[in-house]
Design brief:
The chain has 320 residues and is of the alpha+beta class. It has helices spanning 9-32, 117-147, 152-166, 170-185, 189-214, 218-226, 231-261, 273-284, 287-317; strands at residues 47-55, 60-68, 71-78, 83-89, 100-101, 106-115. The longest helix has 31 residues, at 117-147. Keywords: Amino-acid transport, Cell membrane, Membrane, Transmembrane, Transmembrane helix, Transport.
Length: 320
Amino acid sequence: MTRKHRRTWPWHILTGLILVVMGWGLWYSTSLISYEWRWNRVPQYFAYQAEESQRAADYGTVSAIADAGDNARVTLTAEGGEEQVLEVARDSLQVSQGDDVSEGDQIGVTRHWAAGPLLWGLWTTLWISVVSGAFGLLIGLFTGLCRLSNNPTLRDLSTVYVELVRGTPLLVQIFIFYFFIGTVLNLSREFAGVAALALFTGAYVGEIVRAGVQSIARGQNEAARSLGLTAGQSMRHVILPQAFKRVLPPLAGQFISLVKDTSLVSVIAITELTKSGREAITTSFSTFEIWFCVAALYLVINLPLSQIASRLERRLGKSD
């Protein structure tokens, strides 16, 4: 008996209609408050042409001005005979041949592309996420194994750590790290922020690791020990590889949450993506546009993480 193929295109159309209705609702909501969209102000916060002033180094005269494409090559001859050659944008040239110049006079400007505040904020969010995620994974792996240890001290200390971190807000932990521990140990705000995020992530990863290891049948460990493996070898070669397959989805979710949690380090004056967005709003007055761009940048980070985790999960599943 053949299985009847289920048509899915009507559901895809329904999904598209729902998204269109949501978009229309957003547009209608902004129209009620008479909001004027100014998307043309946004690109400069990703990249812009920075200007650098070129100034005379000494008293002298403009001895020559030559064409250099879109630029002008200006030769200044000082009173002592020394020459200074400056290349500036042609439309910024402020002197003519034969003019006298004083030390510090602006001859023109040079222009070059520079990263805007949103790109710098994105970079800060990325490196904080990667560093704190790596340390959080190590801390979580150690904590999860300590939670399963036969040593009462290791088990009790890891339990206290997990419950303390999970029972208090991350924002409070960041404040404690920066204003108390950071002040006592003279830590930088970046170090304090990464440490707080790593310890927060480690507590949740520890519980994920513990649950994953406990989900493996006890017979797996007994079989490994019967083959002559030590407890450490059994854990490393038999239990943890199987547990990793099971904990991959919650681990991916935890690291995605970590990327979003980096927005909280802005309270200790770290200019990550969210703080960069707030600063851009104060100068552009384009509130909705900037926040939509900030949300899109977080999606740019998190969607590939979700896809990688899904592919890795399917690939590991084939080996079962």
